[in-house]
Amino acid sequence: VTRGCTGTPIANLSVVAGIAATRRARPSTEGASKRSGSRYVMGDLLGRGGMAEVFSGYSVGDHGFQKPVAIKRLLPELANDEVFVDRLIEEAKLLVGMQHGNIVSVLDLAREGDDVFLVMEFVDGPSLRQLIKARGARGLSLGVATYVLQSAAAGLEFAHARPGGAIIHADISPSNLLLTTSGEVRVADFGIARREGLGQGVVEGKWAYMAPEQARGESLTPRSDVFALGVVLYELLTGQHPFGSAVTPNERNDQMRVIPPRVVKPTVPHGL
């Protein structure tokens, strides 16, 4: 892993901090909502998916204590759907035992009225996707790219080495790799994670990063996550997707050829 000349893993922290300013929790009453008796105050919407939405927020305690958190809440139309409620609970159960510096920590699972939500560690920086967009044509340096990927790999290795069996993330992409303003990397969103060997016949995730066996609806192994992480690394190194525009079910197939990164960008080191 190469680092910036200052020794800081994420070399250009000003870029990260600038993007992070739009994601910070707001420990004030402005733009926040709180039910009577609730331990949590919900702030700004950070992102929305097919199952849930994530908000900044904070927990409240005695003597004015406040702690920034991220709140993952089921979409209102799914709050009473037991299938989706059970999935959120399963995500909480999977994550509560995974305490690792490169995985977003789960702090609580709560239900208040019609809302079911997961309370997680608040990551004060952008996603890798946001950082890539902010950098534009400049891209990321090799040092930053390899540092981010090594950190994500360390988090995934921890999940894959669980004593009770490997936990497969199944949705690795730049959107689910989060950065802190101090240069740490967190793997986030285990919403469709499953234990190794499970999930036959289920096709979930992002086609652009999906391993062939996952696209076929076969059971997953840790290699499925490694494949997705390899796609992310290829993007970081070359600025292009390894499959080009062929990232939909009808366009992708197992025989697709990937152009070696050094052919796309000769400055990529041989070893890498």
Note the main sheet: 5 strands, antiparallel
- DSSP, total strands: 9
Structural category: alpha+beta
Poorly predicted tracts of residues: 1-8, 24-31
Shape: globular
Total helical segments:
7
Mean pLDDT: 81
Element order: H for helix, E for strand:
HEEEHEEHHEEEEHHH
Distance between the terminal alpha carbons, to the nearest Å?
10 Å
User: How is the largest sheet built, in terms of strand order?
Assistant: 1-2-3-5-4
Strand content: 15-25%
Q: How large is the radius of gyration? A: 19 Å
Give the oligomeric state of the chains in this entry, treating copies of one chain as homo and distinct chains as hetero. Answer: single chain
- Percent of residues in helices comes to 25-40%
Q: In a few lines, what is going on in this structure?
A:
The chain is 28% helix and 19% strand. It has 272 residues and is α+β, with helices and mostly antiparallel strands.
